[in-house]
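Appendix B, record 7
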Amino acid sequence: MTVIALPPTFKVESFSMQMFTNQRAFGSPFGGSEQVVDQLNDRWLVTLSLPLGHQETAARNEAFLNALRGMTNTCNLWHMKRRQPVGSMRGAPTAQAAAVGAGILGINTTTGATLTMGDMIGVAGLLLQVAEDAVADGAGLLVVKIVNRLRYAIVAGTAVIWDAPTAPFRKVSQPGFQYFTGYAAGVSIDFVEAI
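Structure tokens (predicted):
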């Protein structure tokens, strides 16, 4: 498996990201009550579209998609319409130790730094979404509730990425570029986070 870099011609027109939660639900045959078990294996699903453009640009994008070889290789994606957090956290923040399955992450940053509900951050290859607004205390500790659970433990001191945090993704659709005289049509592509 190889990580294929996005070409500079890869300009996204529309983008959507949704979380797939791996869970099992069981219903009682007697009273109808339910129990849901969270399998702690959340992953991101991405659908994006590339715009109508020049044939040269489409050819480069086509070569990139073909280099992914279906689901064999991966590429690193981020939330391509929200590159940086709305909150003020910048600089070189680091994570505190966190256990597998945790829904809270401690971040060492500057006093008063903020993250806003919906902001995306990256830690150790995980792409995490902030569940609630958070403000760092006087010691610079920012306690962040996250939407998706940690798939593996985080080691203290791990860098927290705030500018275009990425995770590896696999292409799951088979898009084809349609060429016309002088231009190529836009194309829609589906990806799933590689675990």
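Remarks on this record: The longest helix spans residues 55-67. The chain has two domains: 14-78+167-193, 94-161.
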